[in-house]
Design a protein that fits this description.
Blueprint (H helix, E strand, L loop, with lengths): L15 E3 L6 E3 L18 H13 L7 H8 L13 E5 L2 E10 L2 E7 L6 E6 L9 H7 L18 H4 L3 E5 L2 E8 L2 E6 L6 E6 L4 E5 L6 E6 L5 E6 L2 E4 L18
Antiparallel strand pairs: 1-2, 3-4, 4-5, 5-6, 7-8, 8-9, 9-10, 10-11, 11-12, 12-13, 13-14
Length: 256
């Protein structure tokens, strides 16, 4: 493992955090975590980690034999998924061993099927967006992977969208408004399946996907020009539950 080090060795990736609502990137400082470093501080590469995955599958006579590795992979009660330094994943009749990892600005995942010798390595230079346990399950165990829309970080949020980002309530139901891939997304915090997407036009915002498809998102303002509430085909969204300053149905419980 020629490029696995305690401190970063150039050239190396910059780690980022992603703004939850805007999708913009913020560089994360590269930290020496001191006493916490054994929990995950290491700089590495895909080839080096692939070599480590091969070792977990077959061992090495100069380091650790296969029998010792199998013992380390066995769950240690009361934990069902963790052995001695190794994490286990059950998927598709396989038992994978390895571990996930994270540092400020980075996520990682390495798992291997010791019986088949198949493995996965994933590295990401952002602290959000990667399902580190889902990567090995998807690549090694799923019969068919569903295509996903590639995500791109936001360089800037248009003014009309920027003031709408954050939490909104329909009655007591919490939603969040995000800017993602050049569109506004209204997501229910209670259901991952409930997503509305809106496109910004020259003078209006219109739903393109979801329950509000084809409807116009109207931004209502207070006397001082700040945003009061959103109205989408009589659905009123407010910054606080049942805001008394907003019209029915947002202002009166049980009506609407």
């Amino acid at each position: 493992m020629a490029r696995t080090t305690y401190h970063p060795a150039p050239p190396h990736a910059q780690g980022y955090s992603v703004d939850h609502f805007a999708g913009t990137l913020t560089p994360e400082p590269h930290q020496d975590t001191g006493a916490m470093a054994p929990a995950g501080q290491a700089w590495s590469t895909v080839p080096d980690l692939a070599r480590w995955a091969a070792f977990l599958a077959s061992g090495h006579p100069d380091v650790l034999d296969v029998a010792s590795l199998r013992e380390a992979a066995r769950p240690v009660p009361p934990a069902a998924d963790y052995g001695l330094g190794l994490r286990g994943l059950e998927c598709g009749g396989r038992r994978l061993v390895g571990h996930t990892g994270s540092m400020p600005g980075f996520l990682a995942s390495l798992f291997v099927d010791p019986d088949a010798g198949d493995g996965t390595v994933a590295l990401a230079n952002a602290t959000t967006g990667l399902d580190t346990a889902g990567v090995p399950s998807g690549l090694l165990c799923d019969a068919a992977l569903e295509p996903v829309e590639p995500w791109a970080p936001t360089e800037s949020v248009p003014g009309p969208a920027a003031e709408l980002l954050g939490l909104w309530f329909w009655g007591n139901t919490a939603n969040e408004m995000r800017w993602s891939n050049g569109r506004l997304e209204l997501r229910s915090l209670g259901s991952t399946d409930m997503i509305d997407r809106f496109e910004l036009g020259d003078d209006r915002i219109v739903g393109t996907e979801g329950y509000h498809r084809g409807e116009q998102l109207n931004v209502l303002r207070k006397a001082d020009g700040s945003v009061s509430h959103l109205d989408i085909a009589t659905f009123v969204y407010t910054r606080t539950p049942y805001d008394r300053g907003a019209p029915i149905p947002g202002g009166h419980p049980g009506i609407g």
